[in-house]
């Protein structure tokens, strides 16, 4: 069964100080997997509770270690980061991280987001968002099935910004050959694993001739390693238009691009499926991964029990798959699709009247039945 651990020496938050710096918990039991658990801000904690309920129904053996991070923690404690040092030690001693939605305020001089901080610290270069129609839901522009792959460590999100005068600020868009090649290689390998025949590269090389030019050249070089997969490239503005004009042209494609472009495009693509509350994501590196819903913390809905838990539950299932619980993850996915397809126990954004936990309980029940 899933276990919620307490950070050794911690208080009620689950993130106290260690007696031995750098040592998070006792040595791992054989075959045990441990994940840091950030509940987040706003509706994050209630969504994470829904996810835990479903993992418990799947009889997951993952050990979850709760820890603090986010705007609410920062407002109470201050500092130059939304993530306390105690949490960094939990993250470094875990096999993966699950992050509930967190809030980042758009004010100069405040810390970078929790997600960006973790991506950069652990070099989680591939931010992956599947965009797939859910059964029994409204299709704004028809059925879709593709994957968005976003480079997650550099670009404008590198955070190289300077206020030169009261009237002038500049930001550096960092693009490297190494990062461009590895995100391209990830996209091609993903297409190969899925049996898909095309990768679409997104850029604006006609305007950003050096940065986008380097990215596009790198992708084209990597494409030579995958002769069975077609590479097609789109200007970012054209792809944004095509997503609402004819999204089916991207079915069974992997779409790859730089950080900011893909952040915006993946949000646009999320509108093609039932609800942003259904879009889950992973941030993947070579030896670590962070899983999270793709949506924000929705603070105005905090405590109301009305937010769709699908993205959080499926991000949790993806984490279970990553940590070796493939059968349990598959059961959670199948149960979630079945509940949404029936439409009887779903939240308001999916046309139902269920609360967050009522929907989660139905998914948990179906998961348990599928696993026997």
Largest sheet: 11 strands, mixed
Strand content: 15-25%
Q: What shape does the CA trace take?
A: globular
Could you estimate the helical fraction of the residues in percent?
Answer: 25-40%
- Strands of the biggest beta sheet: in what spatial order? 1-3-2-4-13-12-5-6-11-9-10
For the record, the count of structural domains works out to 2
The CATH level-2 architecture of the largest domain is identified as: 3-Layer(aba) Sandwich
Tell me the name of the CATH homologous superfamily of the largest domain: Isopropylmalate Dehydrogenase
Order of helices and strands: EEHEHHEHEEEEHEHEHEHEEHHH
**Helical run tally:** 11
Radius of gyration: 21 Å
CATH structural fold name of the largest domain: Isopropylmalate Dehydrogenase
Whole-number mean pLDDT: 92
The chain-level structural class is alpha/beta
CATH classification, class level of the largest domain: Alpha Beta
Give the tally of β-strands. Answer: 13
Low-confidence stretches: 6-30
N-to-C terminal Cα separation, in Å?
15 Å
Q: What attributes characterize this protein structure?
A:
single chain, 372 residues, alpha/beta, Isopropylmalate Dehydrogenase, 2 domains, two-stranded antiparallel ribbon
Characterise the protein shown here.
The model is unreliable at 6-30 (pLDDT under 50). This protein has helices at 44-57, 71-77, 85-92, 114-122, 177-194, 211-223, 236-245, 259-270, 310-322, 326-342, 356-371; strands spanning 3-4, 34-38, 63-67, 96-99, 126-132, 145-151, 161-165, 168-171, 198-203, 230-235, 253-257, 280-284, 289-293. With 372 residues, it is of the alpha/beta class. 49% of the residues are buried. The strands form two sheets. An eleven-stranded mixed sheet has the order 1-3-2-4-13-12-5-6-11-9-10, sandwiched between helices. A two-stranded antiparallel sheet has the order 7-8. The protein is globular, with a radius of gyration of 21 Å. It is built from eleven helices and 13 strands. It has two domains: 1-134 and 275-372, Isopropylmalate Dehydrogenase (3-Layer(aba) Sandwich); 138-272, Isopropylmalate Dehydrogenase.
């Amino acid at each position: 069964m899933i276990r919620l651990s307490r950070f050794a020496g911690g208080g009620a938050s689950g993130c106290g100080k260690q007696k031995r710096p750098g040592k998070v918990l006792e040595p791992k039991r054989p075959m045990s997997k441990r994940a840091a658990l950030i509940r987040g801000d706003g509706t994050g904690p209630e969504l994470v509770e829904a996810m835990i309920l479903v993992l418990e129904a799947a009889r997951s053996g993952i050990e979850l270690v709760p820890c603090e991070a986010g705007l609410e923690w920062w407002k109470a404690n201050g500092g130059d980061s939304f993530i306390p040092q105690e949490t960094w030690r939990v993250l470094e001693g875990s096999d993966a991280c699950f992050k509930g939605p967190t809030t980042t305020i758009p004010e100069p001089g405040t810390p970078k987001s929790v997600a960006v901080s973790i991506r950069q610290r652990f070099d989680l270069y591939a931010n992956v968002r599947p965009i797939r129609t859910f059964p029994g839901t409204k299709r704004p522009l028809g059925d879709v099935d593709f994957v968005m792959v976003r480079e997650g460590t550099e670009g404008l999100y590198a955070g190289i910004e300077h206020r030169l005068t009261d009237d002038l600020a500049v930001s550096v868009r960092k693009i490297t050959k190494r990062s461009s090649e590895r995100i391209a290689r990830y996209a091609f390998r993903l297409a190969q694993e899925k049996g898909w025949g095309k990768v679409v590269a997104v850029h604006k090389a006609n305007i950003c001739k050096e940065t986008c030019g380097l990215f596009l050249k790198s992708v084209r070089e990597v494409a030579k390693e995958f002769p069975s997969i077609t590479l097609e490239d789109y200007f970012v503005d054209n792809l944004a238009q095509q997503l609402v004009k004819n999204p089916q042209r991207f079915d069974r494609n992997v779409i790859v691009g730089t950080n900011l472009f893909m952040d915006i495009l993946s949000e646009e693509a999320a509108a093609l499926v039932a609800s942003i509350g259904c879009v889950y994501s992973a941030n993947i590196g070579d030896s670590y991964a962070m899983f999270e819903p793709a949506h924000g913390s929705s603070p105005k809905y905090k405590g109301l029990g009305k937010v769709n838990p699908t993205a959080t539950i499926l991000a949790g299932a993806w984490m279970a798959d990553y940590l070796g619980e493939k059968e349990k993850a598959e059961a959670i996915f199948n149960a979630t699709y079945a509940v949404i397809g029936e439409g009887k126990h779903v939240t308001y954004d999916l046309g139902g009247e269920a609360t967050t936990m009522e929907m989660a309980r139905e998914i948990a029940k179906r998961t348990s039945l599928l696993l026997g």
